[in-house]
Specification:
By secondary structure, this protein is of the alpha/beta class. The strands form six sheets. Strands 13-12-20-19-18-15-16-17-26 form a nine-stranded mixed beta sheet, with helices on both faces. Strand 21 and strand 22 form a beta hairpin.
Length: 748
């Protein structure tokens, strides 16, 4: 792979290098102005060939294209080498072009930063104190999310080539990646919930769904969702009579009495240590986590024992603590292997390859014919399976009536909800009881003819059910099994319950999501991060093992912890904190730019983000808003203009700026509309159409079919047992009578 891309493309290449790719970085062409430490992190596991100027880099790209599988370019180099002509000259080549807004559209030439893209993607509108200034999420996660999206797009295109299809140019837009991958407006349940009514809500929503409580030595976050979890908390509180009524098993009822309940929990936690509370909560089955700083997370025993963080040599003279990867394959961590290695042109050892035979793009997508058994639940589980279903795989959701997927919950007992319809489109449902021997045996027989098994239960659950990787490998040596959990199976937190809010708290993200470092309040309570991006990386890892299987024949056992994904995305900050303790703290909307601010504009709760990084941009801002006290001048200037007017004027002057968009407004965004980011999803059980992500948008040569609607529980039980196992009708009827399998009742 040739990496001649921008900072997001460099992150994409690093993810692929972690998976074993031989990546040559053409140095000296990254104009993002990153710190040497960030460059060292982004270019680990790569060989670096210095280039004096972009034309030299363009010449090297042309020279290496005949020997490469993938070339990553920024928009300037894509223009210089003519990316489409380059790909046409090498039919099996995949070219990924990384840019803030994509290679075409009304914003192609706009200046952008993480901050402005967070405003335009809708994430900023959900972050911060109600009635206050919107709060920019912590630095790093937006770029890392876009890089993960790019890696998945690249791996998908490479898979198509490996299966005899053509190469192509893939157009990665960081803006689009954030809109569909960080806090998606029209995706599986998370922070976007308030936007689904179609009404444009003003102000930030209250962040009290996952409350933070003070304790003797810090803070803890509580996440009570299921009845079982609430009963554990009720007993811990001493079974107070005021909350003994079974109606409090409902989240809705607990929210209505939140003030009284919070007072009891606050009193219980006040004089106890955070670590002791976390241990006691785990014992009682109550989801709770310490709210750690990044420094605390760096020192946590769990991440040391899990092998998540280790001291490595980033350069010959620089050693730092670093998250070394977030994926284990067959017990071995895939991640940091070596610092960037400087090479000369004479050291390039790639030989020209004979052009492989390539045909038309296969109908149905690059994963057409792939069989996936999907045990995944809630957000992460839905998204990993959907990644493959959207691109042609036959994904069978294996589920039980006794333990239904929490994503199926509805407020009024409806059979389908928007979130499930988004996350489970394109899948089939097999109703199967895995707790009985007959159900377990059926699953093993299904796995014998499958390619992939996906799950995201607590570590050890598959083994406990008798369907762990060791068992499945006996009947199918080529099977790829993914197990994911909140925390790694190695380490003292392995059995802790975990959801996204608890993962963020334990990894230091929550402590960075504050207006000031001294604040106690965290404002990440409504985000769904890291579920979607962790699912993308999990799918990437699965696809990489499937590619390896093409060469070696063997499958593999993958493990991924969402907490490890978070820390890996913060790798540069972790390294910085290890080198200078106390350095990485919450900075709110200030940041490290020459000038960065979230400013009110004319209108009701309208805002504009200005993020100046370079002296020329600073001069342009001063020339536009006036000199003197720049903060006051910019505030006065913005207050007389609507956010879109202010953005247009500032961008025309060469200043990175963006209006804050609310989630429903993304549907009318001219850039996303130009790219075809959204499509319409219909479901027979919903009385209205849903806007939804259109997966095909970034690809030039992938043929997709319309996804089938998300299934009812057991809707395809008979069909799957017949097609996958060849069972006779009488045998299926017997399994249904015995409760081993179940199917959806006929609809009137």
């Amino acid at each position: 792979m040739v990496d001649a891309s921008d900072h997001v493309g460099a992150g994409t290449a690093r993810l692929l290098a972690d998976l074993g790719a031989d990546v040559v970085r053409l140095g000296g062409v990254d104009r993002a102005g990153q710190s040497p430490l960030k460059d060292a992190v982004d270019h680990a596991n790569k060989r670096v060939l210095d280039c004096a100027h972009p034309e030299e880099a363009a010449g090297l790209v042309r020279a290496l294209a005949s020997s490469a599988d993938l070339v990553l370019l920024d928009l300037d180099l894509a223009d210089r080498v003519d990316a489409h002509a380059l790909q046409h000259a090498h039919p099996a080549l995949v070219v990924l072009v990384s840019s803030p807004f994509g290679a075409s559209g009304p914003r192609r030439a706009w200046r952008a930063t993480e901050s402005t893209l967070l405003a335009l993607s809708g994430s900023l509108s959900r972050s911060g104190r109600p009635g206050g200034v919107p709060l920019l999420p912590p630095a790093g996660i937006a770029d890392a999310t876009a890089a993960a999206h790019g890696a998945w797009l690249a791996m998908t295109a490479l898979t198509q080539v490996a299966r005899g299809g053509p190469g192509q140019v893939v157009d990665l837009s960081h803006h689009e990646a954030l809109a569909v991958g960080l806090d998606p407006a029209f995706g599986v349940q998370g922070s976007a919930a308030a936007g689904r009514s179609g009404k444009v809500r003003r102000d930030r929503p209250p962040a009290d769904s996952y409350p933070v409580y003070p304790c003797a030595d810090g803070h803890v976050r509580l996440c009570l969702l299921s009845r079982r979890q609430w009963r554990g908390m009720f007993e811990w509180l001493g079974e107070p009579e005021a909350f003994a009524d079974p109606r409090f098993d409902s989240i809705t009822e607990r929210v209505r009495s939140a003030e009284e309940l919070d007072a009891l929990i606050t009193a219980l936690f006040a004089d106890q240590r955070a670590a002791d509370l976390a241990d006691e909560a785990a014992r009682r089955g109550v989801p709770l986590a310490q709210v750690l700083t990044l420094a605390d997370a760096l020192d946590a025993d769990h991440f040391r024992a899990a092998g998540t963080i280790a001291r490595v040599d980033l350069t010959p003279t620089l050693s730092a603590e670093l998250p070394v990867g977030c994926v284990d394959l067959d017990g071995r961590r895939l991640g940091f292997r070596a610092p960037a290695q400087r090479i000369d042109r004479d050291d390039l050892d790639w030989s020209r390859r004979p052009a492989p035979e390539t045909g038309d793009a296969p109908a149905g997508g690059p994963f057409e014919g792939l069989r996936v058994l999907d045990l995944g639940v809630i957000v992460f589980g839905a998204e990993v399976g959907r990644a493959f279903a959207d691109l042609g795989a036959d994904v069978v959701k294996v589920e039980s009536l006794a333990f239904p997927d929490g994503l199926r919950q509805t407020r009024g007992g409806e059979e389908m909800n928007a979130s499930f319809a988004w996350g489970q489109r394109g899948k089939r449902s097999l109703g199967l009881d895995l707790r009985c021997d007959a159900g377990r045996d059926l699953f093993v027989r299904l796995a014998a003819g499958a390619d992939v098994v996906l799950s995201n239960f607590k570590p050890g659950t598959l083994d406990g059910l008798g369907i762990g990787h060791a068992v499945l490998r006996e009947v199918n040596p080529g099977i790829v099994v993914l197990e994911s959990a909140a925390f790694s199976s190695r380490g003292p937190w392995a059995r802790r319950l975990g959801y996204g809010p608890l993962v963020r708290a334990a990894c230091g993200i929550s402590s960075l999501w504050r207006y000031h470092a001294e604040d106690a309040e965290c404002w990440d309570g409504v985000t769904v991060f890291p579920d979607h991006v962790a699912a993308k990386i999990a799918a990437l890892a699965v696809a990489s093992v499937l590619l390896r299987r093409e060469r070696l024949g063997a499958g593999g056992h993958l493990e991924l912890a969402q907490s490890d994904v978070v820390l890996h995305q913060l790798a540069a900050q972790v390294a910085e904190e290890s080198l200078a303790p106390g350095t990485v703290r919450a900075v709110g909307n200030r940041g490290t730019s020459l000038f960065r601010s979230v400013l009110p504009c004319a209108g009701d709760d309208e805002w504009c983000v200005i993020d100046v990084r370079r002296p020329a941009e600073l001069a342009a801002l001063e020339a536009t808003v006036g000199r003197g006290d720049l903060g006051a001048a910019a505030a006065r200037w913005c207050s007389t203009r609507g956010p879109h007017e202010a953005t247009t004027e500032l961008q025309a002057a060469g200043v990175p700026a963006a209006a804050m968009l609310r989630l429903p407004e993304l549907l009318d965004d001219p850039q996303l509309e130009h790219r075809g980011t959204y499509t319409t999803l219909k479901h027979p059980l919903l009385d209205h159409e849903l806007p939804a992500e259109a997966t095909s948008a970034p690809f030039g040569r992938i043929r997709l079919e319309d996804a089938s609607p998300a299934p009812r529980v057991g809707e395809h039980t008979r069909q799957v047992l017949l097609e996958h196992l060849g069972l006779e009708a009488a045998e299926i009827e017997g399994l249904l009578r015995d409760g081993v399998v179940h199917e959806a009742p006929d609809r009137a």
